[in-house]
Design brief:
two-stranded antiparallel ribbon
């Protein structure tokens, strides 16, 4: 009986969500097909001059446990992506820290949160969400993504014009085979020393472009997103392809 009630409640929520999206269909689409980072070192590493929209992208954490750096990096992208439209975020546990995302410019009012326990359900919700052009983007938190599932999401994103992201916050190594157009890894670094006042200074991240269609891997040290969703290069950064970094480390 309890299972049946839960199923009915889910159906009601899905109907409500469809009605909400249908009412928002009149919103304009994103102007252009690329979202620049507004940092020449990063944009020049991407063949499109920025992050291509209407495509699938993968973002993963490099930290142990549920490191929040990857989610914050993604929040900054979403904050600048069609800010008048909602973002569908699907996750297995209700552990997303909305006030933290707001610090990166992603307001809680834009979030449509869907919590489902199984990854196959998360992928289903993403595909359904990609049918609606009212959304700015869809995000799904998964531990692994098969090549077949990534191809479906990529095709759905291309057809609808809505950008898709898969987020891995667990810190486990993700599978290399994927149809995602770009794949990123984000790790938190020790904060920069505070200047002129006591306390913790500016948060720093190491952002790695692990894979990019038509491009080469690269890595940057950046300051965490500001309230407008923008990252900035740290003063110590030198833009180096990952291959050169590995040689220097050896």
């Amino acid at each position: 009986m309890a299972v049946e009630v839960l199923k009915n409640a889910r159906q009601v929520r899905l109907v409500e969500l469809r009605h909400y999206l249908a009412a928002a269909e009149g919103l304009g689409q994103t102007a252009g097909s690329v979202l620049p980072f507004a940092i020449p070192a990063i944009d020049s590493a991407l063949p499109w001059g920025g992050l291509p929209l209407a495509a699938l992208h993968a973002v993963e954490s490099a930290g142990a446990g549920k490191d929040g750096a990857a989610a914050m990096f993604l929040a900054g992208i979403l904050a600048r992506l069609a800010p008048a439209r909602p973002v569908l975020w699907c996750l297995p546990q209700a552990d997303l820290h909305a006030p933290g995302l707001a610090l990166a410019g992603l307001a809680a009012a834009r979030l449509l949160l869907v919590r489902v326990p199984q990854e196959r359900e998360i992928l289903w919700v993403l595909e359904e969400g990609l049918r609606s052009r009212a959304l700015a983007a869809v995000v799904g938190e998964v531990d692994a993504l098969s090549i077949a599932a990534s191809r479906r999401l990529q095709l759905a994103a291309e057809n609808s014009g809505v950008t898709a992201f898969v987020l891995q916050r667990s810190g486990e190594q993700a599978a290399a085979a994927s149809a995602a157009v770009t794949r990123w890894r984000v790790a938190a670094l020790p904060s920069a020393p505070a200047v002129g006042e006591p306390g913790i200074g500016q948060a720093l991240w190491r952002v790695e472009l692990l894979r990019c269609r038509g491009g080469m891997p690269a890595a940057w040290e950046v300051e965490a997103c500001n309230a407008a969703g923008h990252v900035a290069l740290s003063a110590a950064l030198a833009d180096r392809p990952a291959v050169r970094q590995l040689r220097a480390a050896g």
